[in-house]
Amino acid sequence: MTRGNSTARAAGIVTVVVAALLGSAYALGRSLVPDQVPGLSTGATTRADGPHYADQPGGSEPSGTPSASTGPAETGQDGSAPGAGTDNLFGAHATSGSPRLALTFDDGPDPRYTPQVLALLREYDVHATFCVVGENAQNHPDLIQAIVNEGHTLCNHSWHHDVGLGARSADAIRADLLRTNAAIRAAVPNAPIVWYRQPGGAWTYPVVSVARQLGMTPLHWSVDPSDWELPGAGKITATVLTQAEPGSVVLLHDAGGNRQGTVDALRRILPDLTARFELEALPTDPT
Fold first, then answer.
1. In the sheet where 102-108 sits, what is the strand order?
2. Is the pTM of this model over 0.70?
3. Which of 52, 95, 124, 145 is deepest in the core (most CB within 10 A)?
4. Which residues contact 138 (CB under 8 A, 6 or more apart)?
5. Which of 55, 78, 106, 254 is catalytic?
6. Of 140, 157, 220, 253, which is the active-site residue?
């Protein structure tokens, strides 16, 4: 064998050894890196189909931007939700405007719960404000009459609790509010209707503007125990009693679903509130 052949053979052996060592190092490195586990979050959102409460203010479609309701309120109700912050009220009143506290009841009247609420208010000599849905007023004119006869204030709450009403044309909004007023006045012709509460608290400039043109003051709230979520009488009671302060407008419901928890909470709430505050029905001549 010549010297040149020996040198070439040695170089070949070295090359093979180096290649083997590099291959081993690569395999070892790969073994130290965990495999990608399918389904683990990488920080990117790939789905937008999580739960969304359709009847809340962007707060209540609730939403910054509510979706339209197609029927009576039976599942979603007014309450805190995206878009229901004070920056989105467009001038709607969230307090009573006085040191007195105002109880408000939405979505009625309902023959199961409204009479119970009226009986409790009567027992404690408290007047409140009832934000009534037009179709319910039409179906239960006797309850509208009872509300007024007992000294409570009425509030227009749209024809069928349409959370998306504020996104409609001014003519559509006006027709809805006028239809609701007509149903109320069919039961109580001379009763003043000077307040309007937008379903879901989903206020927009057009709905506030039309309500004011019709002589109604937009009404929001400042204390919301989310009784539409059926949290139980204990939680409803605790929320109202801990958050109430002079001038509060308390949001409760006497219709729109099972409201027995609200009625039971009211039985606990009234003794405490009447001992601490003056309670009032919102005035029929708001400024």
1. 217-218, 193-196, 153-156, 129-132, 102-108, 249-253
2. yes
3. 95
4. 183, 186
5. 106
6. 253
Percentages (nearest 5) of helix, strand, coil residues in the chain: 40, 10, 45
Is 160 noted as a catalytic residue in this protein? no
Residue with the two structure tokens 């009763």: 191
The per-residue pLDDT for range 52-67, each reduced to its tens digit, is 222 333 333 333 333 3
| Cis before 109? omega within 30 | yes
Strand partners, 95: 248
253 labelled catalytic: yes
Q: Which residues of 20-39 are buried (b: 16+ CB within 10 A; e: fewer)?
A: eeeeeeeeeeeeeeeeeeee
| Residue closest to 207 by CA, chosen among 54, 53, 57, 79 | 57
Helix H segments across the chain? 3-31, 114-123, 134-139, 141-149, 170-187, 205-213, 233-243, 260-276
For the chain, which residues score pLDDT lower than 50? 1-8, 10-76, 81-84
Taking only the tens place, the pLDDT of each residue in 96-132 is: 999 999 999 999 999 999 999 999 999 999 999 999 9
The two structure tokens encoding residue 96: 């009573």
Whose tokens are 């590099």? That residue is 22
How many Cα neighbours within 13 Å face the side chain of 49? 2
Rg (CA), the chain: 31
Question: How far from 122 is each of 55, 118, 127, 151, 272, CA to CA, in Å?
Answer: 31, 6, 8, 10, 16
Please give the structure tokens belonging to residue 208.
């506030």
Residue 100 near residue 81, CB atoms below 8 Å: no
